[in-house]
Amino acid sequence: MNHPLPRDIRQVCSAGTNKLQGREEYFHQKFQVDNSILEGMGSDKPWFRCCLVHKEALSRLGIPSQLDMADLRLRPDQGNAFR
User: Fold this and answer.
1) 24, 26, 43, 44 — which has fewest CB within 10 A?
2) Against a cut of 0.70, is the pTM above it?
């Protein structure tokens, strides 16, 4: 039986996803390191881990998510700062 995510978790994760989609400059400033994307999932990057948790939660509920790991990798054609 599926239960909705607790309200506080939903709000925090939605804020993280919105920042990722709508405030790219914020993420560029927060993630200016030249490591693999998985190394950015440490405890000092809760905003990034929250987006992944949100994506996983949506996936388990059968809701497609626009947040894709490929979008977080360096894409020179779009000037993305993720590396």
Assistant:
1) 43
2) no
Task: Indicate the number of domains in the chain.
Answer: 1
83 token code pair: 């590396």
Name residue, tokens 């996983």: 56
Amino acid 81: pLDDT: 41
Instruction: Note the pLDDT tens digit of each residue in 10-56.
Output: 454 455 555 444 444 444 455 443 334 444 444 455 555 556 655 66
Residues 6+ away with beta carbon under 8 Å from 29: none
- Tokens 């400059």 — which residue? 25
The verdict on residue 27 lying in a domain is: yes
- Two tokens at 70? 């490929």
Amino acid at the residue 60: R
Domain boundaries, position 73 = 7-78
